[in-house]
Amino acid sequence: MGLQKVGFTLGLVLLLFGCKGQVQDSCAKRLNQREFASVAADSKCTTWEQASGELGLAGFVLSNLVADGATDNLRSALGIGPEVTEFKTWAGRTHYQNAQRLTGSTVGAAYEGQSRSLADIELHFFANLGNILAQSYILLDSSADGAISNEEILTATSLNSSSSSTFGQNVMTDSGKLQFTNSTGTTYLLDLAHGYCETDPNLDGVWGGSTASIEGCLITAADLAQASGGSLSLSGPCAMVIQIDSVQSLFTKRLSQDDPVLDLSSALVQGFDRMDEDLSALDISTDAQIRQTLADLTQTLDNGATCGSTQGPPAVQPN
User: Fold this and answer.
1) Record's superkingdom (predicted)?
2) What is the DSSP-derived secondary structure letter of residue 196?
3) Does residue 43 lie within any of the structural domains?
4) Does pTM surpass 0.85?
5) Are 24 and 9 in contact (CB under 8 A)?
6) SS3 for 210?
7) Could you tell me whether strands 110-111 and 114-115 are parallel, antiparallel, or unpaired per DSSP bridges?
8) Which pLDDT score, from 0 to 100, does residue 157 have?
9) How far apart are CA 120 and CA 77, in angstroms?
């Protein structure tokens, strides 16, 4: 998911946060003293200050993230202990959501009719970044050592390993059947080996078990009457029906709609989109490396395909 590029992103943290002056009020002082809960709950503080408190409560603390060796174990730098194994029930998730809400979880640069300050936009970017990193590490880093191995990814995502006995076993053979559509638009299946024929109204190529002859099924008495010299020619598109004997299993189990892997995939795409919107609001060019990286990651995760069918496949009939 591009975690190796976090070092570049943290460099941007310093760039964006380095331009802030030292605001000498009680909220800023309390933030410096890491009194995050006090600031987050204080409506007299600015939205930036309250959101900063929420990020601190989530574990996203700038000094921890830029410390020497922080990128060697970002899970630890993000304050996520080894006991945390479920993102949905983790308290930090709520704090990230609060920080996003306070600084404008909407499209563009407006929130509740108010223009967002540059400080809010910047913090909103990092609230999304922290949320993505936290959700990824909690799901994928089962050993809680800050390193995500291929084995951990396969276990968490249930993706089929290349070492699996079913990996790469896509076997397809010629079924000996032909799908044919005549001039009136009726589609038939022809069993060439046995001379059988039946209609194929679902256009799925699934043989229904008919024993009707091709002549009696495909050719009508009227067709025969019009035949010149006892010879009849039929024209229309046709295609061989390929029989699928086995298909490689993409996953080792059936995924449910609320599977954590699907939640993470959705969160990544949405988070990358929001981060890109924030960068656009900060007038960072689409040619900038960070925006190109976000675009590449989004394209890798979401190719734009949709599936609108709610019907299951037809029952498979024996050949």
Assistant:
1) Bacteria
2) E
3) yes
4) no
5) no
6) coil
7) antiparallel
8) 79
9) 23
Are residues 181 and 152 located together in one domain of the fold? Answer: no
For the record, the structure tokens of 16 come out as 């964006």
Q: What are phi and psi of 15, to 5 degrees?
A: -65, -45
Looking at the chain, how many residues does it have?
319
Residues 71 and 198 in one domain: no
Residue type, 182: N
| Separation CA 69–CA 302 (nearest Å) | 33
- Token digits for 241? 């029906």
Task: Give the list of residues 6+ apart from residue 60 with CB closer than 8 angstroms, or none.
Answer: 78, 79, 96, 126, 127, 130
Q: What does the alpha-carbon distance between residue 13 and residue 64 come to, in Å, rounded to a whole number? A: 12
Provide the 3-class DSSP secondary structure of residue 128: helix
Residue 313 lies in a domain: no
The helix or strand, by DSSP H or E, that contains position 100, with its residue range, turns out to be: helix 91-103
Write out pLDDT tens, residues 27-67: 999 999 999 999 999 999 999 999 999 999 999 998 888 88
Where the chain has pLDDT below 50, the residues are 1-24, 107-113, 307-319
DSSP labels, 238-262? EEEEEEEEE---SBSSPPPTT-HHH
Q: Which residues contact 268 (CB under 8 A, 6 or more apart)?
A: 1, 132, 136, 297, 301
Q: Where are the beta strands (DSSP E) in the chain?
A: 110-111, 114-115, 171-181, 187-191, 196-199, 238-246
CA distances from 78 to 41, 132, 146, 268 (A): 21, 11, 10, 18
Q: Which range marks the domain in which residue 50 is found? A: 3-160+257-301
Query: Please, is 43 exposed, middle or buried when counting C-beta atoms within 10 Å of its C-beta (0-12, 13-18, 19+)?
Result: exposed
Q: Are residues 125 and 73 in the same domain?
A: yes
Count of domains for the chain: 2
Nearest to 157 by CA among 57, 233, 236, 263: 263
